[in-house]
Amino acid sequence: MSKEEIKKTGSDRVNRSYLDKSKRQEYTILIPDMLPIHFKLIMAIYKKYGYNMELLQTSTRNVIDEGLKNVHNDTCYPALLVVGQFMDALKSGKYDLDHTALLISQTGGGCRASNYIHLLRKALSETYPQIPVLSLNFSGLEKNASIDVTPAIALKLIYAVLYGDMLMLLYNQCKPYEIENGKTDDVLARWQHRLGKLFETKNKYMHTKSIYLAMLRDFGAIERSKEKKPKVGIVGEIYVKYSPLANNHLNDFLLEEGCEPNVPGLLDFVLYCASDSVNDGKLYDKKGKDYVLFGIGYDVLYKFQKQQIKIIKENSDFQPPHDFEHLRKCADKYMNQGVKMGEGWLITAEMAALAETGTKNIICTQPFGCLPNHIVAKGMSRRIKEAYPDANIVAIDYDPGATKVNQENRIKLMLANAVVE
């Protein structure tokens, strides 16, 4: 093949449009619905820098149908949903298509979280070639299409993860027990607005201790019943674990069924990615400044987590998140930390940590056919049950052919045997 022919093969056949960042204020940037609490904070951060973002929260069957039309049906469910949600939005008539862009995140891992940006571009290439696709990543991917991640923005994103995790934790521990219906949602909305304003300041958002204490005070003031309800942990592939679209509003369903959802925070996944990079250096004898920087980053993030845990323990009766170093020790009982494709050893560790701290009912959410998750989640559940005989674990597959009724019936069957601590 000549050089000219090579340039026309593969992904180079797909038209690519790039956003002129000097005109970003003229664009509406759509983002998929994965972590509603966290993403609203991220949107507030980028608003100050001239990015007008909108969180897509559509969850109709049409989203799945659009995904099936535009992505090969062997592609994993999260990729299908993200592409489908974007295409559904673009066809809705709500947006000026000459001033609309799309944003997705990339982790740099081996799964769709790094690669589905190409599927999205392919889906757009014929019908909407003018629409730019932006990438939010810390892995040096898509240099020409990366959204701005300056040191100042990166710092704020870290705090958005911390505060998003705190709000998710407090919400799930208050909502099942609230006496006044809707009170927890009101407190959550007020805090999302307040944090958005804090991110507009120079450094007030960095006062974590005072902000955590104020959160604990406001959520702690919500009048709650003393009724004991079953705690249900949610683990699994990161998109299906968090996204209401992907897991058919699992968190809301558990609340309706009289349960307390226990969802490990996003910071665990960030620490997992950082620790994996450090582990690679040790396992493969790799050296260089990148591994040193990942090690420093891990230490800083872990220090943030320890502070959060300490403040929650000392100032409230809320249950804090798991210590990440403890999660690593839990993983070591079952597998090597070199098992890192997808969510890898983290899922096994989260199941073990939940079981030992009183959340014996666990739902493993996974896209059907996701090999890493079938190995480290479904495949390890028996080992977890051997160590914790009263653990009540069910794996739920999510894909275009799985019905919500079937999924909820399987969960109800699990809840019929739910352990209440």
**CATH level-two architecture of the largest domain:** 3-Layer(aba) Sandwich
| Total beta-strand segments | 8
Number of domain modules: 3
The mean pLDDT is 91
What's the arrangement of strands in the largest beta sheet? Answer: 2-1-3-4
CATH class of the largest domain: Alpha Beta
Rg, rounded, reads: 21 Å
Biggest sheet record: 4 strands, parallel
What count of helical segments does DSSP give?
Answer: 17
* Low-confidence region ranges: 1-11
SSE class: alpha/beta
- How would you sum up the global shape? globular
Task: Tell me the series of helices and strands, N- to C-terminal.
Answer: HEHEHHEHEHHHEHHEHHHHEHHEH
Helix content: 40-55%
Structure description:
The protein has 421 residues and is of the alpha/beta class. The protein has 3 domains: 17-148, 3-Layer(aba) Sandwich (Rossmann fold); 150-227 and 290-319, no CATH class; 228-264 and 322-421, Rossmann fold. 51% of the residues lie in helices and 10% in strands. The protein contains 17 helices and 8 strands. The strands form 2 sheets. Strands 2-1-3-4 form a 4-stranded parallel beta sheet. α2 links the parallel β1 (28-31) and β2 (52-55). The protein is globular, with a radius of gyration of 21 Å. The termini are far apart. Mean pLDDT is 91; it is low at 1-11.
